[in-house]
Amino acid sequence: MTGFNHGITGAVIALTVKQPVLAVPLSFVSHYFQDLIPHWDYGVSREADKNGNFFTKRFNLSLLADFIFSVILMIVLAILFPTHKLLIWGCMAAAASPDLVWAYYRLYREHIKMQKPKYDPLSNLHHKMQWSQTSAGALVEIAWAIAGLSIILSMR
Ligand SMILES: [Zn+2]
Predict the structure, then answer these.
(1) C-alpha 123 – ligand 1 centre gap (Å)
(2) How far apart are CA 93 and CA 88, in angstroms?
(3) CA–CA separation, 51 vs 55, rounded Å?
(4) Is the C or the N end of the chain the one with fewer CB within 10 Å?
(5) Which pTM does this prediction carry?
(6) Measured in angstroms, how far is the CA atom of residue 86 from the centroid of ligand 1?
(7) Ligand 1: distance of its center to the CA of 81 in Å?
(8) Ligand 1 center from residue 112 Cα (angstroms)
(9) 25-82 pLDDT, tens per residue?
(10) pLDDT of res. 15
């Protein structure tokens, strides 16, 4: 899913669990389960994914928009929940962080170094767990965002 939606899940966990020692690891683990849900493909087809043809203009713009919206969400949540600001930020970052591994494999190894890297076992699993990535998955992302933001607002 998008970093934005992983961040929403992290924020919900932060506001529900409230104990950093539990909430931060839970947020990290939530990433993998959330990736099991059919989601948006960021404009990268399964074919392009296989051929390592990943960094299209559409993908880059989608990723940039995802990042900008995520930062805006972090700022808004810090204003709405000043006492839990750091915990929310920590959980949002933890929930989105597993995807940073793709900066290493896809951007550095495949795109820059032009290699065909073998993924480590966790990344292999992470990749396989995302069994459904389609453009229609954008509807799931929108539904997740609306539901998650409603839950967060109800916790004020
Ligand atoms: Zn992921």
Answers:
(1) 9
(2) 9
(3) 11
(4) C
(5) 0.93
(6) 23
(7) 27
(8) 21
(9) 999 999 999 999 999 999 887 677 777 678 888 899 999 999 999 999 999 999 999 9
(10) 98
